[in-house]
């Protein structure tokens, strides 16, 4: 993370053998635009706090309308050439933006994105199931999906209300409680309750079924819980 005039977010060092681990880093640049300098400074600072020489993949979180796409692709190529990352990907970009980045990378012999991070669960399916498969088959961009449990909604713990010990009951998560209590949230809870027979038939829990479902999609390579 990179904030102007703000303290750095505390990171836990991960200076351990990495043969079986995957280290990802998400670039969230606040009040600044994506550029070679900003991306390099942010990533170098994160590597220092994590006590790592490099990360396996660095993600550009949300596209930057103020930065030319070529600048972003060149910046990501630069940090890869410098050995600070092995690959780069996008997070919450639409299919048009991803294709534009890929085309620019091919045009100027730069490094294209290899992965898009997208929310994917029972109630958020369009992007991963309709848009990303085409990119996967055409240019090989995979999907790293997140929130398979829909913030806990698909676990069944909110079926009878919001427990005080749950995340929605904690201070700072009022947005989640409001989401669950909204009209759309009630509809989703109703659908979740009506589908409780499927985990029983498959001899698993609702959470296990929700986590396993994204892996069925051909373009999903990683599911982040």
Automatic annotation (TrEMBL):
Which superkingdom heads the taxonomic lineage of this protein's source? Eukaryota
Q: Which GO terms describe its cellular component?
A: voltage-gated potassium channel complex
Matching Pfam families, A to Z?
Aldo_ket_red (PF00248)
Give start and end of each NADP-dependent oxidoreductase domain: 38-165
Molecular function as annotated in GO: oxidoreductase activity; potassium channel regulator activity; transmembrane transporter binding
What is any one GO biological process for this UniProt entry?
regulation of potassium ion transmembrane transport
Q: Which InterPro entries does this one have?
A: K_chnl_volt-dep_bsu_KCNAB-rel (IPR005399), NAD(P)_OxRdtase_dom_sf (IPR036812), NADP_OxRdtase_dom (IPR023210)
Q: Which family does it belong to?
A: Belongs to the shaker potassium channel beta subunit family.
Query: Per its record, how is this protein called by name?
Result: NADP-dependent oxidoreductase domain-containing protein
The protein's organism comes out as: Labrus bergylta
């Amino acid at each position: 993370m990179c904030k102007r005039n703000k303290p750095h977010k505390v990171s836990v060092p991960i200076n351990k053998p990495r043969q079986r681990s995957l280290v990802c880093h998400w670039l969230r640049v606040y009040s600044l635009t994506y550029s070679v300098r900003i991306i390099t400074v942010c990533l170098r600072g994160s590597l220092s706090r994590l006590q790592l020489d490099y990360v396996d993949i660095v993600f550009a979180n949300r596209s930057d309308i103020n930065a030319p796409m070529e600048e972003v692709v060149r910046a990501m190529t630069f940090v890869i050439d410098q050995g600070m990352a092995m690959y780069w990907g996008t997070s919450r970009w639409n299919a048009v933006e991803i294709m534009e980045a890929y085309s620019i990378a091919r045009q100027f012999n730069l490094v294209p994105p290899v992965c898009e991070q997208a929310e994917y669960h029972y109630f958020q399916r369009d992007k991963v199931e309709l848009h990303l498969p085409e990119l996967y088959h055409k240019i090989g961009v995979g999907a790293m999906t997140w929130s398979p449990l829909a913030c806990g909604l698909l676990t069944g713990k909110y079926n009878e209300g919001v427990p005080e010990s749950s995340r929605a009951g904690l201070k700072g998560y009022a947005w989640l409680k409001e989401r669950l209590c909204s009209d759309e949230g009630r509809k989703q809870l109703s659908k979740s309750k009506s589908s409780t027979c499927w985990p029983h038939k498959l001899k698993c829990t609702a959470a296990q079924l929700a986590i396993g479902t994204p892996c069925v999609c051909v373009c999903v390579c990683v599911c982040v819980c």
